[in-house]
Structure formats: C-alpha cells, structure tokens
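Protocol step 4 of 5: obtain the predicted structure for the target chain.
Materials: sequence only (see below). No template structures provided, no constraints applied. The aim of this step is simply to have a reference model before the mutagenesis design in step 5. Sequence pasted as it appears in the construct record:
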Amino acid sequence: MADGINTGRSKGQTRQLVFWIGALIIGAVLGLLGIDGLNRLMDFIATVYTRLFQLLAVPTIALAIATTLASFGNQKDTGRIFRHAVTYTLLTTFAASIVGLVLYLIISPENLPMNVADDGASALPQTLENTSYYDHILTVIPNNILKPFLEGNVLSILILSAAVGIGLAKMPESDKKNVVVKGLLGLQDLLFLLIKGLIWTLPLGIVAFSAQLSAQVTAGVVMSSLGKYVAVILGGNFIQFFIVLPLFLLARGINPFKTLGRMMPAVLMALFTKSSAATLPVTMSTAESRLGVSAKVSRFVLPICTTINMNGCAAFILVTSLFIMQNGGMPLTLTTMILWILISVISAIGNAGVPMGCYFLTLSLMSGINAPVAIMGIILPIYTIIDMIETAENVWSDSCVCAMTDKDISKGE
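Step 4 output (structure tokens):
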C-alpha cells in the first residue's frame, strides 16, 4: 500500500516538473515574439507573482523561526540542527569563494581601459556610492518592531523572530504560553495552505517570468559582457552548482541528481525572482513535499539559510572586489586575497536575500576602501543575468544544506 502511495506521489511530482518546464518553454517563445502589448502583460503578471511571494516570504521566515525555537528550544535537536546547518553553510560558502579565487587567478581578467571605467560612474546609484559597511550593519538592527516587516528586512526579521522563539522556549509552562505557541502554529498552518494554493497557480507565473527574461535577452539588456570577468563569475557559479555542491551531497551519501530533480521547482523560481527570500515559501514546500525533508528541519534550516547561506554572493563579492582593486592599482598579494576570502564570506552571511543585495553590498565595501567604484556602473547592465544565476545557486545550496542536515539528524549524528 505504501509503495502504491509513493509511486503515485512520484508520478505526480514528475508531472508537475514537466508542466513547469513546459510553461518555461511557452514563456520563452512568447517573449521571442517581440509583441509589445504581450510583453507588458507578461511583465505585469511576473510582478504580481513576485509581490505575492514576497508577501508570503516575510511571515514564513518569522513564523518558521519563532515556532521552531519555541517548540524545540529546550530539546537537544534544535542545537544539533543549528550546528549542522551553520557548519555546512560555512563550508559551502568558503568553497564558493575559493573556487572564485582559483578561477580569477587562472583566467586573469585584464584592467579595463581608463575611459570605459570612468564612463561607469554615471550608472551608479548616487545615494549608495558613499554607503559604508557600518551603515549596512546598522540597517540590520531594528529600532521599531514593525519596520523590518514593512521593509522586508530579512536579517532583522530573523533576529526578532529568534528572540521571540527563544523567549517562548524559556518561559515557564502555562496556559498563556500554550495559547501563544498554538496561535503561532495555527497561523503557520494557514500560511502553508496559502502557499500551496499559490504554487498550484505558479505555471502561469513561470510563463510570465520566462517571457520577461526572453524579451530582455532579445532586446540586448543582458547581452553585454566584460569578457574574462564575466567568465570568472559565471564559471565559478556553474562549478559550485554542478560539481562542488553535488560532491558535498555525495560525501554524505545523498544522491545529488535525485535531490536536484526534486528541488527543481524552487531552483527555477529562484532563477526568475532573483530573490532567495521571495523563493522561500516554494523552497520549504518543495523540500517537504518532494524531497521528504522533515518539517522540523526544513522550517528551521531553510529560513536561516535564506539569510546566511549565500554561496553565489560570496563568490561575486570576492571576484568583483579583486577586479575593482586591480583596476585601481592596488596590489593583490596572497595575504590580501586570503583576507578578502574571509571578508566575502562574512559579508555574504550578513547580506539580505533580496534582488541586487550582493551588488549594493559590494559597492559599499569598495566605497569603504576608496576603490574605483565607477567600475560597478560598468557591471550594472550585466548584473541581471549574474543575479539570476547566483540566486538559483543560493537556493540550490540551501536545499543541499537542508538535505544534509536532515540526514544527519535522522541518523542521530
């Protein structure tokens, strides 16, 4: 009987994936048609879906962290889950940064012509050019309990939710505590019902996302290139995605092909939304329903990973920083490169999982050391495609960390 249920579920998952890929192809074809009215309609639908997932992402993070810590705060499992998740996050993020450095040394991008670098200054967001990293850290510290939710500040929401969850876990058992915890769990169940309904309609959104991207490529929005620099960035992302992360899974006895196949809906969603935070509802639902990860692991690990597990961002920060410093005539010694590996990992962990988060963070870091940030303006037109691939890699890495942690916890390690 169980085999029949599993077979039916597997067929349903395969059918869903085929349906999503079909929507992807249909959207690409529609975008290539170049019909102005159709492109505007696809942009509208894509924006609606992005806003809906962003709407659900904030309460998903808050409720997942708060309920998990409240329910498991006094049990050993919570500490073990957290330790495993953080360990795998650090290992994969350092690996991504090191891969980026190795590729940078092998491909060795040359300096840009002086006039080209200067031309990039006009493309920079002027209000952010002088933003320091200390300013970035201050935005994480909330001074108003509603502000992080209104602004979608993922890291601030994580801190507040963790504080609420730990506070509930430490409260003595009472009817009042039980009412609060049951209320939060009830809201979480309602939220997941809404997420399932939105995922059911998602093929329409995929058609729109795919058409939007196809139209942009046709218009040449993302086709310009900085040659070797882009090769380093994209090459590092592909190596991390298809080689390094699968090796991590194989080392823990997990089939990477099966894992990627089952998590593909979340990876595709990340590719189009360019936001791991907006993709979180799909990632959690997919991990539980398709990958079979336990709810107590997925609902704790994935919101944390969405905030701190940024493989693609770490590689981007490192490679872009080295490229800009090189163009500014700063010596790239071995000590400097090792230091920037560390800086890139720490910065990526503190980055928000939102579109262009890595770009603005790198800009603030370069401003802080008086590097020629005008080059960031040259990178800006091609950042759309970089951001898409990085976000897909980040969500794939989140999925890997979640799968490895789940296996470790189930084995009692």
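Step 4 remarks: The chain has a mean pLDDT of 82. Residues 36-72 form the longest helix (37 residues).
Proceed to step 5.
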